[in-house]
Write a structure and sequence with these properties.
With 466 residues, this protein is of the alpha/beta class. The protein is built from 14 helices and 21 strands. Helix 12 links the parallel strand 18 and strand 19. The N and C termini lie far apart (57 Å).
Length: 466
Amino acid sequence: MKEVRIMPDNPSNMPGAPNTGYVYIAGAGPGDPELLTMKADRVLRDADVILYDDLVSPELVEQYPGEKIYTGKRKDSHHFEQEEINEEIVRHALRGRTVVRLKGGDPFIFGRGGEEIATLRRHGIGYEIIPGITAAHGASAYTEIPLTMRKVSSSVAFCTGHPVSKIQVPDTDTIVYYMVASSVHDVLDMVAAKGRSGETKVAVVQNATRYNQISFSGTLDEFRKRERAVYSPALLIIGDNISQFIENSWYSRKKKVLMAGGDSRRYGDAGYIRIPFPCRKASTADLEAIKACMEGIEGFSMLFFQNKSSVSYFFKYLFEHGRDVRHLAHLSICTPSQAAAAELLTFGIIPDFCLESHSSSGVSGLLCKEGIEHEQILLPYTGHVDEAMFGELSAAGNQVTALGVFTHAPQQDEASIDLDFIDEIYFSSPACVRNFRSLYSSIPQRIRITPADDRTAEEINRQFGN
């Protein structure tokens, strides 16, 4: 039976309604890929475009076929600003695509899901919200800290640790503070100032539900005296429901096995946590292609910036190759959005064309209107090239060269796996051993190494001398 979709309140105002796509705003959960809901999994399998955040597990996103656009945002380090994320969602939906906006945790708990649906309503785009397990619930389950507990805690509040000037201390038995990596002591001082006893129990949980989850606990007074660093992502939990045994929870007792390739069914019993490790180097921008384009910039007649971030990274490389805006004087410069146009202004450039489309026909009609055809176009992009845009530009008779100026390497890429949390490494082939050796010069002696066969064992001996 075909799924019935509930459309917005104003379908008559929907631009290009018959061809407009559909948007799912979905929560991916706090980190463990297996905490994704069945509904989110289903829509991800059918998605044309997936816009995902920094805290979404890379191994989760990579299993789905849709075009993937990294939109990570962390404090003082935004790859995409929220306004540009909104524009990207709308742009793809107006082209008739099925879009999944995938967020860490739950979309409506400090996830800006409300801002995004407001944008979709303004454009008359149909959408659904798919809830996810928020970080507080994940941390609670994986550390054995009940957020409510009979005769101990009958109320709980979720708060943020920033900005410091607006920290709230609600009168609840349990308080969970999100985003406290840089403000944990400010929060604790505020809690103490509101009259909480110095013996109140406190816990910090970092990387909740991930293979490298770590937690530690104490009293409010003890934590206020500590100099222990807290790293993002981190939660601060305050309340007398905190057990003294959280460092030895059911999750911490499981063996962590790094799966360097191999059958995902191995280590399938309840005693193991499998960490996928495909043993390939994280992709980056093609520096040779960038060099060739910078040195041959005179051969192009137009620069077409795919989005705002492609502008900033293009100029980064332009300057690194000893060139500046004077070398672009012969080029027409075009953007598909006001955000990209605004970014160009920071480099003193007003684009010749801003082809912001508000219909399902994309930019093709605007290309014809502006007479953009038979051009030699350089198309800088970040993440993934927009195939629809590339196709429309090419269909207008233009010769288009796509240039990747930045490809996101996820936070948990292969080179960032923390071996301190790994108990065993399983190698599925000699090639995986060699690729692993290119990333790590040694393997700690305490880690058990398991080869798939004799050839793999021989390669381990050659590479690591084990």
